[in-house]
Each structure stands twice: as structure tokens, then as C-alpha cells.
Specification:
heterodimer, A: mainly alpha, two-stranded antiparallel ribbon, elongated, B: 1048 residues, mainly alpha, 61 helices, 64% helix
Chain lengths: 209, 1048
Amino acid sequence: MNRKVIQALAETISKHVEHFNKNEAECLIQEFNVLTGKPTNSGRAVHGLDRGKFISVLHNTFGLTDDMITGRVFRTFDKDNDGIVSVKEWIEGLSVFLRGTLEEQIKYCFTVYDLNGDNAISREEMFHMLKNSLIRQPSEEDPDEGIKDLVEIVLKKMDYDHDGKASFEDFKKAVKDENLLLEAFGTCLPDSRTIEKFEGRVFQEQMEQ
Amino acid sequence: MGISLTRFAQWTTASSSTGKLEFTPMNESLLKEILHFVEHFSSQHPQEAEHVFEEPLQWSTILVASDFKTDYNISDSDVQSHEKDSEGHPLLQLSPPTVYVRSFSQLSKLLHLADDKKLAEVRACLEENREPMVKILGRSIASALERETLADVVSLADKMKEEGPAKDSEVKVKLFLLFQNVDKQIVDKLLKEISEPDMLNCKAVKNEVELFKLFCSKGDEGLLKSLQYTSDFEFSNGCRAPPWRQVKGEICYLVAEPCDTETLYITCSTDGLFLNGGIKQDGEENGYERTSDTYKDLATLLMSRSPHFAENINKEHLAFPLCWQHSTFQELSAKKEKTVHEQIQVLLYKISHRRTYEPSPRWRNLGILTTCGKTEENKTRKSSEVEKKSLTQGTKSKMKAELSASSSPGQQSFQKLKTSAGVLPVDLFSESSTESDEEEEQPYRHPETATDLPSEYWQIQKLVKYLKEGDQTATVLTLCAMMDFNLMQESCQLAIQDTGGLKILLNLLDTDKDKCKTGSLKILRKISHNSQIRQTIVDMGGVQTIVKILDSPVKDLKALAAETIANVAKFRRARRDVRLNDGINKLVKLLDCLPNLANLTASQEKDVEVACCGALALWSCSRSTKNKEAIRKAGGIPLLGRMLKSPLQKMLIPVVGTLQECASEESYRTDIQTLGMIKDLVRNLRSDNDELQMHCASAIFKCAEDKQTRDLVRKYQGLQPLVSLLHKAHNKQLLAAATGAIWKCSISQENVTKFQEYKALEILVSLLTDQPEEVLVNVVGALGEFAQIPANKTAIRKFQGIKPLISLLTSPNQALLVNVTKAVGACATDKDNMVIIDQLDGIRLLWSLLKNPSADVQSSAAWALCACIENAEDAGETARSLIGGFQLLVKMLSSTNKEVLASICAVICKIAKDDANLAILTDYGVVPLLAKLTNTTDDRLRRHLADAIAECCCWGNNRALFVEAGAVAPFVRYLKSKDGFVQRSTAMALYQLSRDPNNCITMHETGVVKPLIHMMGSTAEEVQEAAAACVRNIRLLFMANRNAELFT
């Protein structure tokens, strides 16, 4: 992909995507190309990051280590569900991932946590996501007792309509009330230091070129 | 006496047969008992007394032949008794220095003769006859006596009956029984003496041992490796030492294995604890000797022997000296079994927390904390896991089993552990005492007993457990759940502390997970409203951790950390920690924001929020003098000045709060004025927030000591809002600040004129009653300034202010008294006011204030008296009527305070205008005292002293007395003073003195004339006249003398 094509692509994308200007979009496209590793000329062919590659990016670049969560993040980035994160999906995803407003990030996190996509996080989903968050005491009568307890704690905080699950509205309300609940079921956003480092590297370096 | 002698007597060297009896209290009482027994033996048991000993008791006596009287054959130095045994041997024989005695009757006679040396005789006898029983009764019976079995003796006696004369053996048996009886009595008595005070000590030792046993572990993290008794058997009296060592006050023996030094063998005795020769099991005779100093408790001994122990003991947060409260234990143990289990559970939790200060294993897995060495880590993990197992399994049954297996001492020690848990070593650090320290550190609270624990306690305990075991997600969730508790409620705050949550919250601050830090700080900022928590945070070194977060790039975190510091820094030690960790600099940096921009971006708004929190923290910190200095050095004042322009109340309150706190320092007052902050302070006086108004008024109060500041307040129209604040009489703090500002501002007369326009005086007078002292001080101070203007004196009377003023003269508050006397003095210069003051007995009240211990009150009262005496109708008589009043005045001339002396001189000057008064003062010896003061260099005192002397000259031969006492020479120096008042008063005084012709010679010789001639050129007519008259007097005398010489 030559520079002109990239610039044109960046221009179109930056018009649709919030938070990134044209230059930044261009940088992200170039980063994307580096990551995909095949400098193709044929812009037509669908290319992008497959699941494995994307997850390793999350792991190495953004410090997200929980396999279950990274899998979900991939599904969230891959909006058209074709098993590949395209360049457009990449930039759209990063827009929320790196610079999203609270509102956007609530939506994003909720999507990650809503495992079956029924627009609600159920008890079972919560349990599934939290099951590794406490050290299990194999000697205890019920090693899951702590996890169950945590689930109840979360539900108590989120389930405003008392239907035994957290709907999107519930989730939004709870997070707005207490921002710490944004990543209630597992880390799915990079922390501020990581963002700083990534942006510094990608935007700075490529600007200099 | 067998046992009592062999077991109890304390010999110097145990093995030697010629040992000496040590001079110990035990031996003394033993000897006395024996002496008593022997002395009364012949009268109580005449028959047995005649019994002839098997062998004579022999010892070297200090008695000589001359001591013996009748009944004895005395030849040279030898003595023989008349009494002889059946074979004709004398029963007593003395061949100096040795004496041989063969019966009790002779023994008691001898002791009788020895008189006051009898104790020494008994001592010598016992020392040289180590087996008296054998000599008296013969070996066979004596050995039976040792064994204490009557059967043996009886059978022996039977045997002897067959062998020897019946009577003899009967007597022997009787003697034997007697001895046994006495022996028992003595032993009982001695044991009682020893063991009575022991009972408590046994318990104390036991408690301490049980306690330290809990802190024993094989690894390095314990205090000791092991601590054991040498004997498992415990006597009914609580001792473990064998009875024959018990009589020496020894209680038990311990074997302690410290982590860093060799094994210690310890003897616990009533006198204290010391190391012994190495008793591993009881019964080894040679190990009992003391080989070290004596220590008062086990902890001190171990601390001095084991550096490791000493170092760690403080970490374990134990109290020294360990003082146990036995009663509490007994109460507690009386409670139901179930509650005891709960308590123990809580306690075990505490122990486990103490031992595992490191964060939970999960955190460690994440590689967050890598400070501790790997090996140690593993060890602690293992041990903490073991502990946890026993705890978290929740198997109460197991606990129960353990409990029932362990007897009461174990249980007891748990209780003790609990009570001591909250106690920390006293903080020895002390900072400058000038600080305003509104919060004293409180004694550490003893955690509540389990029965009183609220349900929140158990819920919080569970959450704390999740905090320890959870990863980031679980931790954040748990923190959120914890926030849902009412964290302002003390029971929740203390539950977090007691369950070890506080330590974990602080540990979370050391991680690099912002979310965890945020959550933790959100809790800390709430619970740190509790003073116990604050102290614990400081003790755990939390201040350092929190201060570090001020450097975080995350603004929310900075704000939260600053807010927490604002709460924690309520006491001195915390403030010091903030300063020492460079916290002041960091906090000052937070202040850098754009406070008065209209349209702030989100990020700028955050900056403002951070700055507000920073100001809050600085406000708390600024209560320490050194911190004020640090804030100034960090460049905080201009930043505070910039924030002062903000329209936001939440920003203004901490900023003004800090400023008014710091305005106690001169440097701040200057900066506040020069940086133009007065304008903003005045502007905010018009705010609608009481607190803000109060701080502004208070800042003005402190700054208005300076004239320019007072003028600025007027210039910016600050006087009117100050007066209008007086209407908020319900808010006493606000009222105190406002009246204070009015007082200081009214020092400038222009301001008083302005205040009059706003009718301040009337309101101030109305505030003279029913107000707290801090308001009264300021109100009265202001009235004192107002009353400098004549019109206001009348006004105060018209508003009926005199009466309340006079009634305040009886207040015990010294600051108030200084102001009241000043105000009364100012009012008294108005004749009409003086009439009222006189009616209300004001003079007497003022006079009695001369006895006040404060010099300020004394002088201020004296000045007021001057004004009163000058303006009262018949003041002279009133003054005379005060019993002891003049004496008091004269006595006060010996004060060391110059202001007091000046004021008293002024009073004397006023009083002495009345001849009768002057006569009395003279009688009380006022003249030499005044003359003695003339050497002063203080112009104010000189002036009033000269006035007083001038006035006192008018009686009897006082003039001559003054000159005799050497008052003239200093006056010559006074004339050189640049102070016009001093010159004037001195000239008058010299004139008065010169009226006695005899004085003129001295005055002339002292060189008075020349400076006086200078003074005749003074512009003041009075001075001219006095100087001229004085010179004239001297001149006249000179002329008269010459004439006399010429014509005789």
C-alpha cells in the first residue's frame, strides 16, 4: 500500500471515527500494516488481524492477559464477525479502547461482558468471568463460596430492577455512579500508562518519518 | 529445725562445712525464730531442758569470763558451770574462744548473758555446728528427724528403751517431737513470708511466657525460635521451681531459643529474671547461680540478649511493660464458651495479619511487590497458608477441641494478647511546642469484645479476606462493596482496622493498579476521619505511601491522596511525616491551576479539583510551625494568592483557612499584604458562607496588627462587612473572628471613625454579656480602642457598657483581664464614667488585680488605676480604705518587670498627691525602693519613676533620704535621654530635691548644673521653669555659703 492510498484511507476513516485525526489515523493504519505483516498491494483482498494475532497484540502491547477476556475483546472489535479485525475495525475499536468517553467505554465493556449477547449479564456469566478472581481454598467446604459471594455483591450494586441480572441500563447506571465498576468483570481496557506508551510510540515515531 | 536449717538457711558456699550464713532477710528471720525457741526453752520445757546433749555444741564465742556471773566457776579466762552431768562434766565450759554447751538450760542461760549479741551467738553456733540435731539427740534419732517419720523415731525409741535408761529416751522422743513442731512452724512462717508477694508474679511470668510462646516460630519471622519451661509440673501456688528453690523466691526456669543468639537459660524469680548456669531439667544443683543482671520482665531480658527480638518486638506492636489486667480476664472467662470461641477467632485473625504484612499471594504472583526475598516469601506463604487453613476452614469444632485441650493459661494468654494488641510504643518525638495542635493523640483503644461486635464487623471481615485473596477485578469489586458501608460510622471504621483491612488498603497503594489505588483511597479518605485510624495509618508508615501518590499522573488519584492527607494530618506526628516525606512541596505543586477562568476544559476543571484538595491538605498541615515555613519555602504563598481570586467557595475555604492559620507568622503577614491578598480577603467577607467569612475575618484579625493592613482594610471597604458580621451572634466562632478583626482594625483611629458610622459601638456593647470568652476578649479589646476617642467614652456609658465591663474584672481569663482593665482605664478618664466606676467598686476590683500572677494584668490594672485615681472625686481616701493596698504597691516595686514597675510608679505618683497617703507610703519604705530603681535605662520607667520621686519629695525628710540613697547621679544620666518626657520629669524631680539646701551640695558635686542649664533652653515652659528653679536653688545656697564665709 503506498503512501497515497494510506492517506486517502486515513482521510475517509478519520471522518467516520471519533477521537483520531487524519494523521493519527494514518499512523494507526501503518501500525496495522506492520502488525499484519504483509504489505499487500491489493487493497481489495480482505486482510487483517486474525484472532490469534489480535490476541497476541492485546497481550503484548496492551497488557491484557486473561484469555477469556481477550477472546471477548476480539469479538467486540470484530464487528462483522468474520473472524478478522480489518483495518477499519481496528481503528474504530482503538478509538474507544484508547480514547473512548465513559459512555463509549461503558458500551464497550458491557459488550465484552455480555457473553451470550442477550443484552444482559446474568448470574452465570458473572460467575464464569469471576471464577478465577479469588484464590481457591481447596480445603474449604465450598471453594466457590467466595466467588458466589462476589457475584451477589455485584448484583446488589448493579441490579437496580431486581431481575437477577444486569441489563445494559443497570450496568450504565452503576458505572456512572461508581466509575470503578467499569471493568467489574475483568480488565478489558489498557491502563493509562500503557495507552501513553502506545500512543507515544505509534504517533511519535511515524510522525517523524 | 532439721529441714529449716538444711533447706532454708542460705549458706555462702554450699559444700564447705565451715560455711558462713549469708546476711539475707531469710537467714535473719530464721535465726530469730531459733533464738526465740532456745531462749524460752528452759522455761517452757524445764524437764527437757535438763537433757544432756550426746555431744557438746561448741563454737567460738565472743563472750569472755567476765560476762559470766554466779553459778559459774571462774578461773582466769576459763569458766565452768556449777551444773554437771551424771559423769561430773560441767554442762558449760568456756576456754576462750571456744565454748562447750551440753544442755538447753545452759544454752538459754548463755544466750541470756550474751544480751544484745545473742543473735551473733546463735549465728556462730549454727555456723560451727552444721548438724546440731545430731549432737543433741544422737545420729540415729536425728536422721529420723530428717526423714520426718514418727514411726521410725518411735521404733528407735522403743529400741533405745530396751538398751538405755527409759527416762533418757523418753526425753529424747519428746525433744524430737518438739523439734519437729518448731521446725514445721518455722518453715511455715518462712514460706508464707516468701510466697505471699509471689502470687502475682507467678501469674505475670506465666502470662508473659504464654504470650511469647505465641510468637515463636522456626523461621526468621518469629520473635523467638522456642520458649519452654524446664518443668511441666506446676505447684498449686503457680510456681514450677522445686519448693526448696521457691523459698529463694524462684518461680520457674525457662529455656529460650532466640533467632540470633545461643540458647538462654532463664530463672524467673520474685526479684526479677536473670540468666542461670544452664538448668535444662530441674534437679541439677550447680545450675542455679545467677550469671547475669536481673531484668524486670522477660521482654526486657530478651531484648537485651537478642537484637533480633528487640528489633521485631516493636513490629509486633506489643506494649512494654506488659501490664496485665487480671480482672478483665476473669470477667471475660466467666462469659459463655461460645463468645470465647469467637474472640479467639478474631484474635487468631489478628495474629495472622500481624505475621503476614505482605500482600496476598495473588498480588505477589502478579509480581507487584518484589521487595521481600524469595526464600522468605515462600516461608511466609507457607505459614500464612497454614494459618489460613486453620482459620478459614471455619471449623469451629477444631477450635473447640484445641481450646478444651489447652487449660486456662492458654485461654488467658489469648485474652492478654488481645488487650495488648492495640497498644503501641509511645511516640517519643516532640516537635516545637508553639504549634497549635488541636488534636491530641489518643490512647489506643482496646478492641471491643466479641459479644459487642456488630454484624458489619463480620461482613467487613469477609470482605477483607477477599481483598487478600482476590486479583485486581475481585479487589476492585470488594472495595466497591466496602464503600457501600457507612464508612463515617465508627464501628465500620474500627472493624476495617481490627480485621487487618487497613494494612491491606495501605498495601494496595503500593501497587501499580490505579483502580485499586483509587478504591483504596476512596475508603481511606472516609475512615481517616477517625482519630484511631489516623494514628494507625501513621504508625504503619502510611503517610509516606500516600504522599508518594501525589506524584501520580492520574489527577483523580492526586486529589484523593491530598484529601486523605487533609484528614490524616490532624495531629502532629502525621504532619511531621508529611513534611519529612517531601509532602509539602508536592502539595504546593498541586495548587498550580487556573482558578478563575470562565470556560474550563474538563482537564482544567480536574486541575481545580486537585488544587482544592491540595489546599485542604495544606490547611491541615499548616497547623505545624515548621510546615508553615515549608509551605512558604515551596512557593505556596503566591499560589494561594492566585487561588484566592477564585469565585469557588470550595476552593476559597481551604485557601483562606490555610492563610489565616499561617498568618500567625510575621513573614506570611507581610506577604499577604504585599501580594494584595487583603483585597480578596475583604471581598470574601461579603460571601454568603459563614465558614469562609470566619476565616477571612480571622485572617484580617491576625494581619491587622500592621498599620498598613488596617488602612488597606478601610480602603477596600472591609469595615462595614465586619460590622455586619456582628449580627451573626449565633455563630460564636464567626463572632470571635469578626470582633477580633474589628478590635485590631480599631487600633487606627480613622477606622474607629468609620466604625462609628456603622454604629459598631452599640453592637459591641451589647456583646459584653452572655458571650464566650474568646468573643469577650476581642469585644473588650475593641472597646478599649474605641474609648480612646472622648465621644465614645460617653457613648459607652449611654449604652450602659460600664457595668458589664466592671463585672468582667472578676474574670479568671488573663487575656480578657488585660483588655478589660485597659478599657476601664480608658473609660475612667471621663468624670461621669468615673462616678459609675466608683459606685461599682471598680477601684477595689482593679486594685485586687495587682495580685494577679500575670505581669501583663498587673501593669494593665495599674495603668487603669492611675486613670481612676486621677479622675475620681476622693480617690485618696478610697485608696487608703483598701486594707493592705499600699503595702501591696510598695511590695510590687520589687517586681522584675519594667512595665509593671513603670505602672506602679505612676500609681504611686497619683496617690502621693494626697499628703496622708504619702505619709503612709513613706512609712512603708517607699523611698529607698524608688531610689534603688533609679539605675534603670528604660525611658518609660525613668519617666514615671522621676515623677514618683518628685511627688514623694514632699514629705518629711524624704528629699534628703533620696539623695542619701544615691538618686542624684542617675538623674544626671536621665537628663541626657532623648525622651522629652524623661527630661521633663527629671527636671521636676531635681527641682523638688534641690529644695533641701543640703542636697544642693551633692547635686552640684554630681554635675547637675551644666545639663540643667542646657535644659533651660528647652521649648517646654515647664521644663525651663523647673530647670531654672533648680539651678537657682543651688546658686542661692552657694551665695549663702559665700556670704557666711565672708561675714564670719
